[in-house]
Write a structure and sequence with these properties.
Order of helices and strands: HHHHHHHHHEHEEHE
Radius of gyration: 24 Å
């Protein structure tokens, strides 16, 4: 491969934008692990949770190993799997996010050690294990969903989930849950039964929230319009909203009249724009709209003309 081909992507705005997104996302993901998992030793189904178990086992053997170090080692191994089983782009992006998780936990430790936030004798930053669990799951789930959107991940469990998603075709949230439950069960070796159950519930909630955010990010409106002014509406969609649309000839079962039906996929804001246009111009139309959670093919986040 030529040097220019390797350097060219670095010069693009897309590269820098995604780099910033990954860095900020991982900064908050590291905070969720450091402040809500490490003190309470809750093992939610994640590589961070598995690292807590391994670190505790080493501690029982009289060997001090930091959780962040174990995270780094496990992620390095999983990155090899990501590169070969999922793809080069995913592997390289995840390589960056996974390798900075451990160091970023150390950064949070230097900024504000969690020991300063704990009450005397407490093992929970929020004062309750369930609150710690909820805070961790919410922050991590948002980070995971954002990463999946740009074909990256937070590393660790997400790599296993992505492999399950790709080869078994499960929803990404279900994939996170399956991989997480397997890891979570390792906590029986170091944690009491109650903590393991809390971790399993957190793993299940994590999968549900990831799916929710993924669907929210990807949700589009599938709009069907029947009107005598179909050409005018079609022209507005193509030239003003800058989206493509399809035309179908339909025949009314009651009137027997033949008309054109317009179908288009729009974002929520674009749909609102179209409805405002129809109202302002007093265009009579029969409209149905439904949510679509996934779109494949030529439809793009960026507006483009379709000829």
């Amino acid at each position: 491969m030529k040097l220019q081909e390797l350097v060219a992507p670095v010069k693009t705005w897309k590269f820098w934008k995604e780099l910033i997104i990954m860095t900020v996302g991982m900064f908050f993901a590291a905070a969720s692990v450091y402040y809500f998992l490490v003190p309470s030793k809750i093992v939610v189904g994640s590589i961070s949770g598995l690292s807590i178990v391994i670190s505790a086992l080493f501690e029982q053997a009289g060997i001090a190993v930091k959780v962040s170090t174990v995270v780094l080692v496990i992620n390095a191994f999983l990155l090899v799997l990501a590169y070969f089983l999922i793809g080069k782009e995913f592997g390289l992006k995840t390589c960056y996010t996974a390798l900075i998780l451990g160091p970023m936990m150390d950064v949070w430790e230097k900024i504000c050690p969690y020991t300063k936030l704990l009450a005397p004798g407490a093992t929970s930053v929020m004062g309750d294990l369930w609150f710690d669990l909820i805070c961790f799951v919410l922050i991590l789930s948002i980070s995971q969903a954002i990463m999946f959107q740009i074909n990256a991940s937070t590393g660790g469990l997400d790599i296993l989930a992505k492999i399950v998603n790709k080869y078994l075709h499960f929803d990404i949230g279900l994939s996170v849950t399956i991989a997480g439950i397997i890891i979570c069960c390792t906590a029986f070796t170091v944690n009491p039964f109650r903590l393991v159950i809390i971790g399993l519930i957190g793993t299940w909630i994590n999968g549900l929230i990831v799916d929710y955010f993924m669907m929210s990010f990807n949700r589009r409106k599938r709009v069907c319009i029947i009107s005598d002014e179909s050409e005018r509406i079609c022209d507005y969609i193509v030239h003003n909203i800058v989206r493509g649309c399809s035309l179908y000839e339909v025949k009314g079962g009651y009137t027997g009249e033949t008309r054109m039906e317009i179908q288009s996929l729009l974002t929520k804001d674009e749909f609102a724009d179209l409805m405002k246009y129809l109202r302002d111009n007093k265009i009579q139309a029969f409209i149905t709209a439904g949510n679509v959670s996934e779109v494949y093919g030529l439809w793009s986040q960026h507006k483009r003309h379709h000829h």
